[in-house]
Amino acid sequence: MASRQGGAGDAESSRSGSTERRTASTTAPAGSRRRAGRSDPLPFDPETGDYRRQCSPSARRSSVARTAEDPPVRDPGLYALTDHFRDRLEQPGRYVSTRTVSDAIRRGQLRWNRTDGWRFALVDGGIRFVVVVGDTETNSPVVVTGWTEVANREAALDARRWDPVDVDTIAVRAALSESASTPIPDRIRPRTVTRPFVVGDHRLKTEPGEPYVRCDDCGCRFRSKDAITSRGCHGRSGR
Questions:
Q1: So where are the chain's domains?
Q2: pLDDT over 90 for what percent of the chain?
Q3: Confidence of residue 88 (pLDDT cuts 50, 70, 90)
Q4: Which of 78, 112, 77, 86 is nearest to 33 (CA)?
Q5: What is the mean pLDDT of the segment spanning 156-182?
Q6: Ordered strands of the 2-3 beta sheet
Q7: Which strand (E) or helix (H) includes residue 133?
């Protein structure tokens, strides 16, 4: 289900730093969420400072008639956020925000993928922001999901926006997701992740030389994403 609350056109700080700092900037205050399916009548455009006019019912209906091959629109204010993506905005170590989504939609390269459909991809400070969108099965364009990848490690380490833990966190998360069922000890071993990032129920860290990620709460060790998501976390009492 898609929600119009806090859509991709919302103003939001793009300042990046540690996992905790960036996560705080993308988490809605308590009580600010609205019921899924409700819409903000005037999405805010952070680039112009103006409020956008809401799509007319006829314009929204016309999006349903679009085919999967039609390129998506580059107006962030027209996009809703799916609940799937909204949940991921609040996870530590995701490094995505509504601001980065808006930037990717406006300025990113557009690519078609047989699995996900249309993707916008924007490289900033050595990190690639990938945003998957859709508009053929909903009444308005939606942001389906998004993630980050290390496009250029040296550039990312040189950028003021990231610190080494940020870069290693992005690298480990992306490696786990590339082939969820494949153990990746050699890609985990060189990385240092001292601030937990979230996958499934687990808050994960790793130290140099360790061929696994370790849950900071239950102590379980994992070498693949499937192993992480198939096991619940029972806290320290579950060790």
A1: 2-155, 163-238
A2: 57
A3: confident
A4: 86
A5: 96
A6: 2-3, 80-82, 142-150, 127-134, 117-124, 109-113
A7: strand 127-134
